[in-house]
Amino acid sequence: MRRLWLIFAQAVTVSVAVLFVLNTLKPEWFKNAAPAAVVSILEAPGNDSQAPAPAPNSYADAARRSMPAVVHIYTAKDIARPRHPLLDDPIFRHFFGERRDNAPAQRASGLGSGVIASADGLVLTNNHVIEGADEIEIALNDGRKFPARLVGRDPETDLAVLRLQGNGKLPAITFAQQDALQVGDVVLAIGNPFGVGQTVTMGIVSALGRSQLGINTFENYIQTDAAINPGNSGGALVDSQGNLVGINTAIYSRSGGSLGIGFAIPVSTARSVLEQIIATGQVTRGWIGVEIQEITPELAESFGFAGTEGALIAGVLRDSPAEQAGIRPGDILIGVDGKPVHDPKGMLEMVAGLMPGHSANFRVRRADAEVELKVEIGRRPAPSLQR
């Protein structure tokens, strides 16, 4: 019995050795005929034939989920050629008479990005991407191209809504929950930088609520170090799950390229503008007709104030709601409908958020007293009509 066992053990050892040598020298022999046990040994962990495991820190799923909803926007418009200076020269006109400049207008093109906000073809982008354009074409991530028309725009937040004139259901992006973003969160910027094609860059949220940048009237930007370059404007800023958290809008740059400081309009603002434009074709904001100024320590000292809270009324427009309510230059606005006013930016946002026709209580500091005034909110004029 012992002799039979030794023979069996030696036979198994020799067989395994032969299989190992043959698999090493002639692996193709075992491609289709290797026993299951041999296959399991060859594909054991640590063997070179094992399929690569997914990267643990990859954001491929987020990119795959959001990229189809990000589009390329191509615009075209006519630009009048500059008039030749000789045509305005009196001596030239004296000798050659009045001459018309019949040079044809130049055709200018531009590019940017956008985000499909609904499956029926509504696209969010920046106002500066489509401003002045008389032709708009949208290219989807899959290569399809469609004409688009302007539904409405809001220059004061630099947002615009387009309607893609195509057929069928489109890949719409998913909006993130309002105020879900935090400093330090990972974000992806998706767009068409420099026209090279759809590109994804990764970074983190560097800051929230950035304002006083001089970019737009209403500023509440997400700051990120994800690379944003010309052509990214209007593209998507998404979180690590692929949900839309912002619309890429601007960069801080001295060279024209990304320096790691980019700004995006938060999804809460984009959603509000989108809903108003869909409903009425425009964005309606409150207005009282005053010019406001920040209270500096020097101004506070000259007025005899202990702090710099509030907004200084530097001017009041004639026949405006503020003038009719009795607000005067030199007043310090410190409260609107029971909410404290900390600075001019906060005052502007508070008033803009009130509906035209609403009667609001304004609390102002005048000389050494506080005065309550009733102001009927007016409709904020379009930027071109504001004086």
UniProtKB/TrEMBL annotation:
An example Gene Ontology molecular-function term: hydrolase activity
Domain of life: Bacteria
PDZ domain ranges (all copies): 277-341
InterPro entries, alphabetized: Chloro_Bact_Ser_Proteases, PDZ, PDZ_sf, Pept_S1C_Do, Peptidase_S1_PA, Peptidase_S1C
Keywords: Hydrolase, Protease, Repeat, Serine protease, Signal
Pfam family, one: Trypsin_2
Catalytic activity, EC: 3.4.21.107
Annotated CDD domains: cpPDZ1_DegP-like (cd10839)
Coiled coil: none
Protein name: Do family serine endopeptidase
Taxonomic path: Bacteria, Pseudomonadati, Pseudomonadota, Betaproteobacteria, Rhodocyclales
